[in-house]
């Protein structure tokens, strides 16, 4: 999944919204397609209903022509001649109207079973003129003529019955079924009209006619039940009211006569009267049929209109929803993109400036991220400020150390010069004592000269004693200075340790400062070690100086005794010579001690110079650290 981190945030939002937009478009398209299909279906039903109504008119006229043809054939041409001729013209007019309606109907819906039914119907119509000629010439029997008309009408009825398969609407299926039932009811009534017209014309039932008559009556009852089952309550009430009217009940009375006198015949019913009564009943059914057809067509048109409104509304709502979704997606993507780019630009422009902050425009996740970043920068700023304060203290301390070390180096150099002078003086004393020992034999002769020499030696000894005291004082000052250096090194070590701790807290930003703090700590420890060595050398010098002071004091005492006892000098020349030898040895030792003290002092001067250089380096490092911290905090 590493590829997802290489995609921009805007593209990620687009990919996240893409499935939803595709689903929205798919649901909108399928919903509109379903409603468009419903509209087309209702248009088809509406056109086919108009075609079926026109076909119903043809059926109605064919039913009348069939009845008159049956009466005409039953009466051997003595009745219904003029009525049949007039009816044939009316039938032709109805056929012309049907053909016009068929031509105006969209050919795309005249496919499958509907096209086959229309084709069969046209084939029967083409045979209509032949059948009419046969009826006029009485060259066709009644059952054959009735069968021809019945088959022709059945084709049209099959066309109407197949319309129920063109819709999925339950209400439309019921209305089509009710309309189909009424057409079949009226068709069976027409068959009954033709059949009884022939029977009443003959005055009796022929072979199989009573069974056919009973079957026709039973079918009428069955189709009436079906019509009532599929009709609405209003349509049922309308149908019952029509069937209970006087125009419809008169034919039922004549039917009852046919049933009651079926065995003996001689019904006493005029075929024209029956034809008229049954025609009135059929016309009554025809009115009900037309009202049902009107309702069916109006309902189909209403459903088509509703379907059109539905898919147009669906399209409008889908487009609005899509537009809102896209607008919202663009606004969200733009806001996130602008906020992210602004944040990245602000971070790039900071360039180590810890005083700048990111914008926090709201309370969302990106704003919370900016707020957390600002809090982190503020914490780092506080840490760096503390480091800056420590760096200032360290710089001040290092400056003081550097100044003290410079002063200490100067005084150490001065002390070394003093020791050199003292060593030179001790060398002179040693020469004088050696001369005294060599000239001990001449001491008696040179008593007065020796007295002067003794006085001079006493004076020099006093000066040497004073010099030794000064050396002791200088050594004590060196010890105090070394102790101050040791204390400063300890404080510097503590400051470096604190700086290292603060640098560790600062993390990545404190790495450079941690290196500087480590170097400062190393220098302070080195300074402490060198100061310890200086202290040891000074302590050793102090011991030697004390010994020299003691010996110089003894020499001074001896010289005073020699001055006070000049008279006894002759007697103790040998003792003086021996004492002079011992003094010469002591002075040599003092001279050696002074040489060692000079070397130690020279080493101290070198160490003090190194300490001064280290202090200056520490001061430079402190200045660099302060400059580095100033880059982050003003």
Automatic annotation (TrEMBL):
<feature type="domain" description="Methyl-accepting transducer">
    <location>
        <begin position="390"/>
        <end position="619"/>
    </location>
</feature>
<feature type="domain" description="NIT">
    <location>
        <begin position="53"/>
        <end position="303"/>
    </location>
</feature>
<keyword id="KW-0472">Membrane</keyword>
<dbReference type="InterPro" id="IPR004089">
    <property type="entry name" value="MCPsignal_dom"/>
</dbReference>
<dbReference type="InterPro" id="IPR004090">
    <property type="entry name" value="Chemotax_Me-accpt_rcpt"/>
</dbReference>
<protein>
    <submittedName>
        <fullName>Nitrate- and nitrite sensing domain-containing protein</fullName>
    </submittedName>
</protein>
<keyword id="KW-0488">Methylation</keyword>
<feature type="domain" description="HAMP">
    <location>
        <begin position="339"/>
        <end position="385"/>
    </location>
</feature>
<comment type="similarity">
    <text>Belongs to the methyl-accepting chemotaxis (MCP) protein family.</text>
</comment>
<keyword id="KW-1133">Transmembrane helix</keyword>
<keyword id="KW-0145">Chemotaxis</keyword>
<feature type="transmembrane region" description="Helical">
    <location>
        <begin position="311"/>
        <end position="333"/>
    </location>
</feature>
<dbReference type="Pfam" id="PF08376">
    <property type="entry name" value="NIT"/>
</dbReference>
<dbReference type="InterPro" id="IPR003660">
    <property type="entry name" value="HAMP_dom"/>
</dbReference>
<dbReference type="InterPro" id="IPR051310">
    <property type="entry name" value="MCP_chemotaxis"/>
</dbReference>
<keyword id="KW-0807">Transducer</keyword>
<keyword id="KW-0812">Transmembrane</keyword>
<dbReference type="Pfam" id="PF00015">
    <property type="entry name" value="MCPsignal"/>
</dbReference>
<dbReference type="Pfam" id="PF00672">
    <property type="entry name" value="HAMP"/>
</dbReference>
<dbReference type="InterPro" id="IPR010910">
    <property type="entry name" value="Nitrate/nitrite_sensing_bac"/>
</dbReference>
<dbReference type="InterPro" id="IPR013587">
    <property type="entry name" value="Nitrate/nitrite_sensing"/>
</dbReference>
């Amino acid at each position: 999944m590493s590829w997802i981190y290489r995609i921009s945030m805007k593209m990620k939002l687009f990919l996240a919204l893409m499935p939803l937009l595709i689903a929205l478009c798919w649901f909108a398209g399928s919903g509109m397609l379903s409603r468009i299909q419903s509209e087309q279906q209702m248009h088809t039903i509406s056109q086919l209903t108009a075609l079926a109504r026109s076909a119903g008119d043809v059926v109605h006229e064919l039913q009348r022509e069939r009845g008159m043809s049956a009466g005409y054939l039953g009466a051997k041409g003595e009745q219904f001649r003029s009525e049949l001729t007039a009816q044939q013209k009316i039938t032709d007019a109805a056929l012309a109207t049907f053909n016009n309606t068929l031509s105006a109907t969209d050919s795309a819906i005249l496919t499958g079973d509907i096209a086959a039914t229309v084709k069969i119907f046209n084939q029967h119509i083409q045979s209509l003129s032949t059948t009419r000629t046969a009826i006029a010439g009485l060259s066709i029997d009644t059952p054959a003529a009735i069968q021809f008309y019945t088959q022709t009408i059945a084709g049209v009825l099959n066309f109407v019955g197949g319309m129920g398969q063109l819709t999925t609407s339950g209400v439309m299926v019921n209305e089509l079924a009710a309309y189909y039932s009424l057409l079949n009811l009226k068709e069976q009534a027409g068959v009954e009209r033709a059949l009884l017209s022939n029977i009443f014309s003959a005055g009796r039932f022929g072979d199989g006619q009573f069974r056919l008559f009973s079957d026709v009556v039973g079918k009428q009852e069955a189709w009436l039940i079906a019509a009532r089952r599929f009709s609405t309550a209003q349509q049922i009430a309308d149908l019952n009211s029509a069937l209970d009217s006087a125009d419809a009940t008169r034919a039922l009375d004549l039917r009852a006569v046919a049933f009651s006198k079926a065995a003996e015949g001689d019904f006493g019913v005029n075929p024209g009267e029956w034809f008229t009564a049954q025609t009135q009943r059929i016309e009554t059914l025809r009115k009900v049929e037309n009202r049902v057809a009107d309702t069916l067509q109006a309902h189909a048109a209403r459903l088509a209109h509703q379907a059109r409104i539905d898919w147009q509304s669906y399209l409008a709502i889908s487009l609005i929803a899509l537009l809102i979704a896209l607008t919202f997606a663009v606004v969200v993507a733009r806001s996130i993109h602008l906020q992210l780019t602004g944040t990245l630009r602000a971070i790039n422009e900071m360039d180590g400036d810890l005083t700048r902050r990111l914008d926090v425009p709201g309370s969302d996740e990106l704003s919370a991220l900016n707020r957390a970043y600002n809090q982190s920068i503020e914490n780092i700023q506080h840490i760096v400020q503390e480091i800056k304060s420590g760096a200032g203290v360290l710089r001040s301390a290092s400056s003081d150390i550097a100044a003290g070390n410079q002063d200490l180096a100067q005084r150490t150099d001065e002390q070394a010069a003093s020791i050199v002078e003292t060593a030179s003086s001790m060398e002179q004393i040693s020469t004088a004592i050696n001369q005294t020992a060599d000239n001990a034999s001449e001491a008696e002769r040179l008593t007065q000269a020796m007295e002067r020499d003794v006085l001079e030696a006493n004076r020099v000894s006093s000066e040497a004693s004073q010099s030794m005291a000064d050396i002791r004082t200088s050594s004590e000052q060196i010890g105090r200075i070394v102790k101050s250096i040791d204390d400063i090194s300890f404080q510097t070590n503590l400051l470096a340790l604190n700086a290292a701790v603060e640098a560790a807290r600062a993390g990545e930003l404190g790495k450079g400062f941690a290196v500087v703090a480590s170097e400062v700590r190393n220098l302070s420890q080195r300074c402490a070690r060198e100061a310890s060595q200086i202290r040891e050398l000074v302590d050793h010098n102090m011991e030697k100086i004390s010994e020299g002071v003691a010996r110089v004091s003894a020499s001074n005492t001896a010289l005073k005794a020699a001055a006070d006892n000049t008279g006894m000098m002759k007697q103790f020349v040998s003792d003086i010579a021996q004492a002079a030898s011992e003094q010469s040895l002591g002075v040599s030792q003092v001279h050696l001690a002074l040489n060692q003290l000079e070397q130690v002092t020279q080493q101290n001067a070198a160490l003090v110079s190194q300490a001064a250089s280290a202090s200056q380096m520490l001061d430079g490092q402190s200045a660099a650290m302060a400059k580095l911290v100033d880059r982050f905090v003003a």
